[in-house]
Amino acid sequence: MQIITSPQNFSEEELYIDLRSIFGHTLFLKCEGFNFAGSIKLKAAKEMVEAAERDGILRPDSILVESSSGNLGVALSMIAASKGYRFLCVTDRRCNFSTRLLMEALGSQIHIITEPDADGGGFLGARLSYVQALCASDKRYVWLNQYTNPNNWLAHYHTTAPAIARQFPQLDVLFIGAGTTGTLMGCARYFREWHRSVWIIAVDSVGSVTFGDPPGPRMIPGLGMGVRPPLLDESYVDEVIRVKEVDTVRACHRMARSGFLLGGSTGTVVSGAMDWLTRHEAPDLTAVAISPDLGERYLDTVYCTSWLQEVYGDGVFEPDELTAREPAVSLIGSIPSINRSTAR
Ligand SMILES: Cc1ncc(COP(=O)(O)O)c(C=O)c1O
User: Fold this and answer.
1) Which ranges carry the Tryptophan synthase beta chain-like PALP domain (predicted)?
2) Could you write out the DSSP letters of every residue in 93-152?
3) Which atom of ligand 1 is nearest the CA belonging to 69?
4) What pLDDT sits at residue 327?
5) Which residue puts its alpha carbon closest to atom 4 of ligand 1?
6) 153 C-alpha to center of ligand 1: Å?
């Protein structure tokens, strides 16, 4: 039994899904969605807040402010509520509706940026400028800045990576999605110092500029950046895989059809990993991937047929998948008359 008094003190570290029965390759998917913030960002939030408290940056009258596409915002909302701080989340219109409601329920304030940066910095550039202006306007604002804060990657160096190492002493390949690159850099640094060499593969979405590609439209939050992530040190990354959002969606739906409802970035990581495992035909490899969150926050996007058609057109599903998809919901206006001979 585990008894807690603060929500941030619970985190599931030992749950993996073996995806072989769904995709045909053994890939152990570390599930990070089972905590009270519902995502891996709880770890970064906890480490950054605790460090700011230790350093005397966070005081009782401080107002935490952060730019987040959602999950860090939820994690900080939860920790702020638990510790009695105020929190203002600066997000943009791609933030899931349910994520916004979660932050509100936890007592946070939310400012939504509706237009991307005019100088090509995308929504992220616009969010960062807004946070900087807020901090300049009032000394009570404290910006932990997940994009530059070393405690972001240290959280994974201290928790995620050692947890994987404990369960997989023969680990060969690790697939990690890249957002701020906190998870990537923390795990990559840990495994660089480990007793055996592990191939570190970063998975990014097409349209992200993280690894030097040109910017493009991206609708699924979590992975990918509109500006180059300051935490990234590419010398720790052995390989980069780029995944199109339609492939993200396909992987998500394939897992959901087996009962595993996982978040958008999990679909990206799994799609990239399965593609890599297919190309490398190495059945004895021990491969692990990290799933940052669960799928419930994506019911109105990744798992919503009308949203998918609006954003990606009809081509998201393969023709055979489309014909197999009957309408999930039917509106029944009146009770149909019952054929009495068959009803008895
Ligand atoms: C759902 C999801 N996946 C992946 C990531 C990327 O993690 P990181 O910022 O550590 O690179 C995030 C970050 O917010 C996220 O919310």
Assistant:
1) 22-290
2) TTS-HHHHHHHHHTT-EEEEE-S-BTTTTHHHHHHHHHHHHHHHH-TTEEE--TTT-HHH
3) 14
4) 67
5) 222
6) 11
pLDDT at residue 106 in the model: 97
Testing ligand 1's pocket by substitution, the residue of 34, 47, 183 carrying the most ligand atoms inside 8 A of its CB is 183
What phi, psi does 197 have (nearest 5°)?
A: -85, 135
Q: What is the spatial distance between Cα 331 and Cα 225, in angstroms, rounded to a whole number?
A: 40
What would the two tokens of residue 167 be?
A: 């369960």
User: Model confidence over 309-318: pLDDT tens digits?
Assistant: 999 988 787 6
The pLDDT tens digits of the residues spanning 154-170 come to: 999 999 999 999 999 99
pLDDT band at 319 (very low <50, low <70, confident <90, very high): low
> Is the pTM for the entire model greater than 0.85?
yes
Query: Which residue's structure tokens are 């570190």?
Result: 200
Give me 223's structure tokens: 């992975």
